[in-house]
Design a protein that fits this description.
Number of strands: 0
Shape: elongated
Order of helices and strands: HHH
Helix content: over 70%
Largest sheet: none
Number of domains: 1
Strand content: under 5%
Radius of gyration: 16 Å
């Protein structure tokens, strides 16, 4: 697992887009926390929560794509 953590840290240092996406992913997570504390969400809150979850997932997918490409480039 240490190798994976080192790889991620390297990406954060070297890749501006990955760094920006990591921050964005963290921001989405922070925003989602406020909804997890509520027992019942209004319709607007449900829509916002769903939107944030989708954006967070898209961000994570893009981060994974960057990591895959970096691994291929690094290996080759």
């Amino acid at each position: 697992m240490s190798e994976e953590r080192d790889f991620r840290e390297s990406l954060l240092k070297q890749n501006e887009e990955y760094r920006r996406l990591e921050q964005q992913h963290h921001d989405y997570e922070s925003q989602l926390v406020r909804y997890s504390d509520k027992i019942v969400l209004s319709d607007a809150e449900q829509v916002e929560e769903t939107t944030l979850k989708k954006k967070k997932l898209q961000t994570k997918d893009r981060m994974e794509a960057i990591a895959r490409q970096a691994r291929v480039t690094h290996a080759g």
